Amino acid sequence: MSSILTNNGAMVALQTLKSVNANLAKTQAEISTGKTVETAKDNAAIWAISKIMESDVKGFKAISDSLSLGQSTVEVGRQAAETTTELLQDIKAKIVAAQESNVPRETIQDDISALRDQIKSVTNAAQFNGLNLVNGTDDVSILSSLDRNSDGTVVSSSISVARSDLTTEAGTYGNSGGTISSAITSSNTQIDKDASANQLNITFGGVATDGDTITLAGLEFSDNSNTAAARATAVATAINAANLTGITASDASGVLTLTNTNSFAEFEVGFDAGGANTFVVDNEEDNSFDVTSTSAAGTTQLSRRAEEVTLSGTTQVNEGDSYRITLGGTNYDYIAGNGETMEDIARGLKTAVDGGAVDGVSTQVAKEGNDWKVLIDYEGAAANISLADDAQEGGKASGGLFGLDKLDVTTDKGATAALDNIETLIQNSIDAAASFGSAQGRIETQSNFVSNMTDALKSGIGSMVDANMEEASARLQALQVQQQLATQSLSIANQAPQSILSLFR
After folding, report:
1. Does 386 lie in the same domain as 282?
2. Single residue among 398, 421, 438 that ends a domain in this structure
3. How far apart are CA 108 and CA 69, in angstroms?
4. What's 271-327 look like in SS3?
5. Are residues 240 and 264 in the same domain?
């Protein structure tokens, strides 16, 4: 049935043309923008995911900038630490030259002072954007990542870089009220001038049998004389013939006396009394120390002359822990920095004492078991000097080059002490450079990862929302043809009612 009121063919043709035009408009939009999902209307879920990922990309770009800033800052710190190490090595060379007594020590001291001032100039200038990693002890955090959890929450991650203080600051002694004084103990309340040599008496008894021996400094001495007096004399003669540095032996009425004049060296003395013989051992430094060994092996100490300040190796060291040795009423302090140990404290106290005003004091650091000890000997003008110790919490850390200002090679003792102390300073500087180098490598690795991660995110976003231009081009041509055909079809459909006029002619 034909109708002039309802043209079904035209309606079908019109709907087809509308559909073709809509698809053509979408395809042209894809070609124009390069995206198949431009707005939430195109695909709400994909659009939402892409926007979240785009925000992460912008965040990672900011992180990349942060890592670049951090890497530059750490590099400046590393360069400063390496330069400082080289200058300290130059100072060591000067100190070694000063070990000879017939060199111009005053001139050498001037050279050391010039190198010291150069080190201070380097550490003061080693800043990037106002941040100096070789001054202070606080850690520096560098933003390194954004971590998105499965529930959608985002947290930031940071790389922590520890400062390595290479200043010469003495620090500030703690007074927070918390005390760790039990961690430091002195062996005496005073240090005697030219302290008398320590002695160890061994009394021979009974009849000689095979196996009666004395061991000292890795050597073994024995005699099988029938009388105690003869055995003591023979062993004393053998010990003196060994020419052990600082050790002499004497005998009287069967008593062997061992004498140690070494300031810092002590020796284990072993004795093995065979048969029913008895060795009675007495250490004259502490008359309450008596050991009797019957038909059994035993050991005791031929102790050093120096007094000892013992630092407990079982005590936890925290930043700001302040340790003090007091000589003749003058305090010599060292305050622990971040991550330091009892060894660092012992060497710091040694440096402080060596740089003090008491002439004739010599020091050494020793480790015995878990404990560290500062050994102090005195050969000064006064009859003796008082010795005390203390420790408190809550101080401000000493600089890693603490004691550099006090290096003095103008005297024999000063040159000797400087040679030992410069090694500690060089090691501190090397540790700082190594720490910065490790941190710089980690930052560089993270920076490369963030760059690759950003590229991966961009690629992922593109795969979701970018248009396939080859496909879009082919579709455009097809839709243009369809549009022409749909237009022609509509035109034909619109001409159909014209045929009805012929029925009325």
Report:
1. no
2. 398
3. 41
4. EECCCCCEEEEEECCCCCCEEEEECCEEEEEECCCCEEEEECCCCCCCCCCEEEEEE
5. yes
Q: How far apart are the C-alpha atoms of 231 and 249, rounded to whole Å?
A: 13
Residue 408 lies in a domain: no
Quick check: is 406 in a domain? no
Per the prediction, the chain carries an average pLDDT of 85
What distances in angstroms separate CA 349 from CA 103, 272, 363, 477, one per listed residue? Answer: 29, 40, 10, 87
Decide: pTM greater than 0.85: no
Looking at per-residue confidence, does 477 or 119 come out higher?
119
User: Quick check: 269 and 299 in contact, CB under 8 A?
Assistant: yes
Counting the structural domains of the chain, the total is: 4
Q: Are residues 108 and 251 in the same domain?
A: no
Domain that holds residue 71: 46-162+429-458
pLDDT band at 325 (very low <50, low <70, confident <90, very high): very high
Q: Going by C-beta distance under 8 Å and a sequence separation of 6 or more, which residues neighbour residue 404?
A: 116, 119, 168, 425
Strand partners, 326: 331, 388
